[in-house]
Specification:
- 2 copies of one chain form a homodimer.
- Chain A is an alpha/beta fold.
- Chain A has 2 domains: 7-75 and 398-453, Urease, subunit C, domain 1, CATH 2.30.40; 77-391, Metal-dependent hydrolases (TIM Barrel, Alpha-Beta Barrel).
- Chain A has helices spanning 51-60, 98-111, 116-132, 146-159, 185-200, 224-237, 249-259, 263-269, 287-296, 304-310, 317-323, 341-357, 365-368, 377-391, 428-438; strands at 7-17, 25-35, 40-44, 64-66, 71-75, 77-83, 135-141, 162-166, 168-169, 210-216, 240-245, 277-281, 299-302, 326-329, 407-411, 444-449, 452-453.
- In chain A, the strands form 2 sheets. In chain A, strands 6, 7, 8, 9, 10, 11, 12, 13 and 14 form a 9-stranded parallel β-sheet that branches. In chain A, strands 1, 2, 3, 4, 5, 15, 16 and 17 form an 8-stranded mixed β-sheet that branches.
- In chain A, strand 16 (444-449) and strand 17 (452-453) form a beta hairpin.
- In chain A, helix 4 (146-159) runs parallel beside helix 5 (185-200) and helix 12 (341-357) packs across helix 14.
- Chain A is globular and about 65 Å long.
- The interface between A and B is large, with 65 and 65 residues.
- Chains A, B: Pfam families: Amidohydro_1.
- Chains A, B: Keywords: Hydrolase, Metal-binding, Zinc.
- Chains A, B: One of its GO terms (molecular function) is guanine deaminase activity.
């Protein structure tokens, strides 16, 4: 047998993951061996011929932790779209139209983050809260302020969360309020360059647990020059990029009127798209847009709950999943109130169901919705884990040999929340669906990022 | 000053309630005096001329409990539609069409409740869980088994939950599975009569904390004779009645094809409607249906999350609220997975927004949805409290003199769930919206029913 010198610890756990879109795997008493780098060194299903021997060796070396029955191991969740500074706004103002919501709530709030004493406790709470909800990888839209955004990156590093952090760029004086707008493109780009450098230089960030993300807010808030200059940096440094894409009728029409193009074309032409770009929302895509996103191997951050409030329509999730475009999920704090990616997964299913059924009782059943638009809970789980990781080009999201060990443990019992599992009735598929429907922060008992226990 | 001999205790609390549909009231440091019967004997806003004197007397008599800042008192929540025996099914099978869902999951499960040893722990957990989520009044659809349903009623009594409990009647052999169908109408009605008698005779139930409810499952599952016989009992004993009403295309068409009438007309003609009837769902109502529901002063149990999965369309909530029909909310466990009426309130808002915006990107913005269909969070809160109480003709739902004291305390802090309140940013309206969006079981710190502390 191996001596397992390089093994940090091992787990024996009833394990869910979704290596293939549309399918899930359940491995009872799965053995996972985590090496000293925090990667998965090996896995053994309970029917593997070496299972008993490996297990015995691990026990002898005091390296095996056995999860209790009723606890389930699964990949950590991936949040592709979270506006960290909007955290105090989560759950209010949702009655407002998007424009009023931004002007009256969001921009004045985001502008306050230039005060680091204001920023620090809020950023600390939002990052901890996401982690406690099981989000091991988070893509953060911060604010236009560099220092506060670097603070956010540092806090993610300190906390041990895999994070993709962006200092927002927005310089179109016609669309941005005067108090919250970069008025000098050179200074803004210098700030962005310094931000990239400083995040990569964070102490302990040699393996890039925390990565800088180029972050043009969206087409209307940027000048064409800004988009092009940011695109150059994406290409030159091979950086992640995040932005909003065709989120609403207004955003789609703005692009058409000002550029004669779609958002996707504008981003592509500016050099902003690559194999790790996150296009949040992506509601009103044309067929050409979809082809272009696929050609660049860019990805979509689907934010279903926010879409119900602000997007004017439902994303074509069914068709996009079938097209092979990379898709993951986003909380879109605070366009939606919940920081839970389980909730996003649930809402992805329910919004797809509403799209299939339609809403208008005055129409006949056949006219009301879009046939076969539903997605399954298993597909939603895939988006929440492997799909999201794939968008980020991250080696996580699946619990298999060679991946970073980013994982969570879900526990169900009658003292916590509303998730109930009855072993007598519930198949593995049922258990997975119930977790997506009902797991909340208190059900997340353990969180590991890169093999490190980070739930404190 | 009064001696307050009849006062059991008093509270000083930052208090929300919604006495008027579409409005909310926030009373900081509201004083509520609860008498020995558990009713609200008096209230004082902090600007009342006697406030200081009353408060001083209460303190002197050691009768005043002062809630901490960051805790909010509000009326207990009302769940108008909960299938208690479906609790183990919450959060699974939602991918299925309604027919398969009923036949493969629900009916086999409900049928098992004839085994009281099976029923007892599940009923215990669901009633406790609803109470812990802040539901002080619950309307339960149980199963066709009388003994198990009496057990449920007894458990509600023991727990101190205000409950409206129904033994299901379903006798149409063409629609019900053979193993789960009342084959003898006389025996079924005798059972129903015995059930009514036995619930009213529960020890300690002199004030009818727990009430029997006439419960025809829905039109397809009952013979016309059954509906008529049940209607006679509603009229004769002035009983509550609950049923499903025009929940889906199929249900609506069934009524048309078999009776040439709508569900509402069928129920009215059978004598089933009165001033405390609960018509769950009520999606496909005609104008005549709405007039008839109003004429009988019957009410609607709106179950928005379940509707997203099973109703084929969105309820016309905006128009129904404007029409003055009585409406409250239902969890519809397990047609929806969450037992929280805060969640139902949130989903009522979001489904109304989806209805307003529409879902189909292929249509123009003007064609996509129904203009002005949205409802507000404040209206949803009214439905969750005063509206629901009004449907039941219960003297609860508003924290005013003369009402029964059914109330909850919501607490927000960073150690619990995801609800965050920043006094610096959040107006009372913001706080109320945040509670609706994010409060979960763990935020419910105190629950009183009829003045009794029932959260254990």
């Amino acid at each position: 047998m191996h001596a397992f010198h390089d093994i940090q610890f091992a787990l024996q756990a009833d394990t869910f993951h979704a290596p293939v879109k549309g399918q899930f795997a359940f491995h009872p008493d799965f053995l996972l061996l985590i090496n000293i780098d925090g990667d998965i060194a090996a896995t053994y299903t309970s029917d593997h011929p070496h299972y008993a021997d490996v297990r015995q060796t691990l026990v002898a070396q005091d390296k095996l932790k056995v999860l209790e029955k009723g606890q389930y191991l699964m990949p950590g969740l991936v949040d592709l779209h979270c506006h960290a500074p909007q955290w105090p706004q989560a759950g209010k103002g949702l009655d407002l139209p998007l424009y009023d919501w931004l002007q009256n709530y969001t921009f004045p709030l985001e502008n306050r983050y230039q005060d680091l004493a204001f920023a620090a406790p809020i950023y600390q709470d939002v990052t901890r809260t996401l982690l406690a909800n099981g989000t091991t990888s988070a893509v953060y839209f911060a604010s236009i302020d560099r220092a506060a955004t670097e603070l956010l990156a540092q806090q993610c590093m300190d906390l041990g969360q895999r994070a993709y952090v962006g200092k927002i760029n927005m310089d179109n004086t016609e669309q941005c309020p005067p108090y919250y707008c970069e008025q000098n493109i050179t200074a803004a780009l210098d700030d962005t360059d310094a931000f990239i450098h400083n995040v990569l230089a964070i102490k302990g960030n040699e393996n890039r647990l925390v990565q800088p993300v180029i972050t043009p807010r969206f087409v209307p808030s940027c000048t064409p020059d800004m988009l092009n200059q940011l695109g150059k940096r994406v290409q030159q440094y091979d950086l992640h990029m995040q932005t909003h894409c065709s989120e609403s009728d207004w955003a789609r029409d703005y692009a058409k009127q000002h550029y004669g193009k779609t958002d996707v074309q504008i981003y592509a032409d500016a050099g902003l798209l690559n194999h790790k770009s996150v296009l949040a929302h992506s509601i009103f895509l044309t067929e050409e847009d979809v082809s272009m996103i696929k050609a660049y191997r860019a990805g979509i951050g689907h934010c279903p709950l926010s879409n119900m409030f602000f997007a004017n329509a439902a994303m074509q999730t069914r068709e996009l999943l079938d097209s092979g475009v990379q898709i993951g999920l986003g909380s879109d704090i605070a366009g939606a109130p919940s920081p839970s990616i389980f909730r996003a997964a649930f809402d992805a299913v329910s919004h797809s169901r509403v799209r299939e059924e339609g809403v208008d009782v005055r129409l006949s059943a056949g006219q009301r919705g879009t046939a076969n638009a539903r997605i399954s809970f298993v597909e939603a789980f895939w988006m929440a884990t492997a799909g999201g990781a794939s968008v980020l080009d991250a080696n996580t999201g699946i619990l298999e040999t060679g991946r970073h060990f980013d994982a969570i443990v879900i526990e169900a019992n009658t003292t916590i929340g509303n998730l109930r599992i009855w072993p007598e009735f519930d198949t593995p598929r049922d258990i997975l669906e119930k977790i997506i429907c009902l797991a909340q922060k208190e059900n997340v008992k353990r969180v590991w990022v890169q093999g490190k226990d980070v739930l404190r």
